[in-house]
């Protein structure tokens, strides 16, 4: 089972772990190209500012919470205990349970450095998944060339994390041409994934400060820190709504006076 939640103007799908697994199995075995977005607080700004993001999310098959902080209006811990998918970590844990075994995966990242990190990450956690292609957008590959490469490999899964709104633009222009089962847009959560799997320099390891280094690197994406950011965004959103309502009321009264 699942439900829809509205966070500011962004509508999210909240699924139970069981329903999530069922939907992933359905998407990965179907004939249509399905698109799933994992969104974060940072994605809210994109949604408000970029029409292409709004358009692509409306056509998405699922829009899932990528981090707990985006659900701060709700009892997140209770939802998690109740078996709901509240962030990308839970989605990752569920996908590791054989859902991606023997599946072919194509990866599109922002740059070569991130591509190497994500490639190692996938090989570590999804040993039975076949990575058939890794592309970095800093090579200035065209959308047409990217589609051709994807369709040559015929992957089951495409993982996308591109700069700015390029993933959304790519999907808007080329979704109907892609020969794959499912695409997952990770642009909103990729920085979290990279921080949580950050490479510890050898010098830090020799000083036995690896855990401290990792802990400090993760601070900007800690749930507590992100909740503070959510509250600020929520305050700004409510203020804007109030100002818009006052402006609309004022314009209505002005129109009536003219009549």
Notes on the protein architecture:
The chain has 259 residues and is an alpha/beta fold. The chain has one domain (2-188): Rossmann fold. Helix content is 52%, strand content 17%. The protein has helices at residues 17-29, 41-49, 51-58, 76-81, 88-95, 112-125, 143-153, 166-174, 190-196, 202-206, 210-218, 223-258, and strands spanning 2-7, 10-15, 34-39, 62-65, 104-109, 130-136, 157-160, 182-185. A six-stranded parallel β-sheet has the order 4-3-8-7-5-6, with helices on both faces. Helix 1 crosses helix 5, helix 2 packs across helix 3 and helix 3 (51-58) crosses helix 8 (166-174). The longest helix is centred in the last third of the chain and has 36 residues, at 223-258. The termini are far apart. The mean pLDDT is 87.
List keywords for this structure.
single chain, 259 residues, alpha/beta, Rossmann fold, 8 strands
**Overall tally of domains:** 1
Shape: globular
From the 3D structure, determine the CATH topology. Rossmann fold
Number of helices: 12
Sheet bearing the most strands, described? 6 strands, parallel
**First-to-last CA distance:** 52 Å
Give the class from helix and strand content and strand pairing.
alpha/beta
Strand order within the widest sheet? 4-3-8-7-5-6
